[in-house]
Design brief:
The chain has about 200 residues and is mostly helical. About 70% of the residues lie in helices and about 5% in strands. A two-stranded antiparallel sheet has the order 1-2. The two termini are about 25 Å apart.
Amino acid sequence: MSELVTGSSLKEFFKAVLDEVIRRQRVVITELTEFYLVNLLSEFATTDKLFSQEQEGRKDHEPLAVLYHRALLQEREERIRTLRRLGDVSLYKAGFFAGALQSSVVGSDYYIQMGGTAYGQVAELSPGAGFAEVYRELCSKFRALVEVLEEISARGMVQGGPTGTLKVYETWVRTGSNKLERVLVDAGVLTPKGHMPN
C-alpha cells in the first residue's frame, strides 16, 4: 500500500487486494457486498471520512454508543444513515485497528457486536431496498470481514517498511493469529513454522 494510489485506481487497488484476501481466507460474499466494501475502503482511505468530530484541534469519531443512541431517536431515513455509519466505522476500526483495540477499554468484540447489530437493523429498516441483502450479509459475516480487513491492514503495514512490520510481528506474538503469521511468512519475516529465518 505504499504506492501512490488515487481516484478510480484506489478502488481498483482495494478490489484487487480484497479479492486476494477473501479468496485466501475462503470468505464467500456476493458481488454487491464486495462492491460495498471496496467503496468503504476507498472512502475511509482519507481520515476526513472516518473521523467526524474535532476535539481540541484533533479529529476524532463519535463513540459508537452515542451514534446508536442518536439512531434510536431519529426518523427512519436518518436512523438508517446513522446505523449504516455505525456499522461502517465499526467494521473499519475493528479490522484496521485491531491491535490498538486490544489494549482499549472496550476491545474489538464491542465493535464487532455494535457493527453487526447496526447492519442487521439497517437490513430490517430497508426490506424493499436492493441493498437490504448486502446489510444482512455484512451482519451475518461481520467477524469474518473484520478478519479480512485485519489482513489487508497487516499487508499494508508490512509493505510500508520496518516499523509497520514490527507492529504486525508484535501483534502476531501477542495473538498467535494465523492470518498475521501468513502475512509475515509472505513478507519473508517468518518461516512457515513461525520461526525467524536464519
